Amino acid sequence: MKICYLNITKHIPARDSSYLKGLRENGVEIIDIRDHTPGLKKFSNIYKQHKRVAKDYDLLWVGYSAHILVPFARLITRKPVVFNSLLSFYEGKIVSRKQGAWYSPMGIYCWLVDFLAFNSATLNLIENQATIDYISKKFLVPKRKMLLTHTGVNEDDFFYDPSIPKLPQFTVLFRGALLPDCGIEYFVEAAKILSNENIKFRLLGDGLLAPKVESALKTFDSKNFEWIKERLDIADLRKKMQETHLQIGWLSDELRSLLSVEHKTFESLIMKIPFLHGRTPGIMELLKENETGFYCNLTDARDLADKILELKNNPVLLGQVAENGYELFNRKLRSNILAKVVLDHLKNNKIIA
């Protein structure tokens, strides 16, 4: 079987690389077509590249974040189109980055992009039932066009390395882009609350809310807070992550936070880093409290601080949950397993032979 992969990114997004790896492990050949040329020229370039291989594949796969490419893909092929969407374009632009109101030209444009993308695809890959329900209602998409599936990680990049020891001081990690969805302000506030405890806070990331973080750190003696803004190479990133004792997920009550399962969730599971997240519908479909993950109240720095302190004093539970999360990843979330879920769905529903 051959799949033609399309995207408008320079590099393959992490949320695609795990699928492509898994597809190859299931015997699928990948034809990779990508073009990130600014403006409309990328569509012309993709069209020309696709025309050369149009008869050579069985399924067209549109990669993560390429919402605007899906209707175009539908126009250039009669073959099934799978879109690794996970979330909506509208959520990223309007809800998360606040680039316009819902009734603004940008809001209407983003809604239309999603409406056309989700309805043009034969099958959309979505990361939880809460998001399926939202997309179906918001963008008028039949639920039969959506499949609940997770993305996992590329296991060549992220894996458990037993040679990396934990830091001597209990260290709590927050990694990722500093966007309104993430609730980074509650992580910093928890560091302030626990500034007199023997706990270190490590932030790996930069972004829109960086000035807010800088201001918050000036309100207390933040010697317990380490902030690395620069992009790390993958080996250094793995080390900086795995030597910590607990990773924190999103903490806000923004819509995208409520619906999303962040990529670092899967990184934590495969690296045996216990994961503490705000109680959101999306993540709670995946991780069971005190079994494969931990939860705290949303937008509540005090509850987060209390939970961190409680877990610091319960290393046995931390270890058990880390092992359970690792087992969950190996049982359900490895690349070859996730890719097979998609392939089986396509075959069982006679979308492919």
Which features does this protein show?
353 residues; alpha/beta; Rossmann fold; 2 domains; six-stranded parallel beta sheet; 15 helices; 12 strands; 16% strand; globular
Provide an overview of this structure.
There is one protein chain. The chain is an alpha/beta fold and 353 residues long. 44% of the residues lie in helices and 16% in strands. The chain has two domains: 2-152 and 334-348, 3-Layer(aba) Sandwich (Rossmann fold); 170-332, 3-Layer(aba) Sandwich (Rossmann fold), CATH 3.40.50. Helix 6 (129-138) links the parallel strand 5 and strand 6 (146-148). It is globular. The mean pLDDT is 95.
| Fraction of residues in β-strands | 15-25%
Task: Return the CATH class of the largest domain.
Answer: Alpha Beta
Q: Which blocks of ≥5 consecutive residues have pLDDT under 50?
A: none
Based on CA atoms alone, the radius of gyration comes out at 21 Å
- The total of helices stands at 15
Structural class: alpha/beta
Largest sheet: 6 strands, parallel
Tell me which CATH architecture of the largest domain applies here: 3-Layer(aba) Sandwich
Number of strands: 12
CATH topology of the largest domain: Rossmann fold
Order of helices and strands: EHEHEHEHHEHEEHEHEHEHHEHEHHH
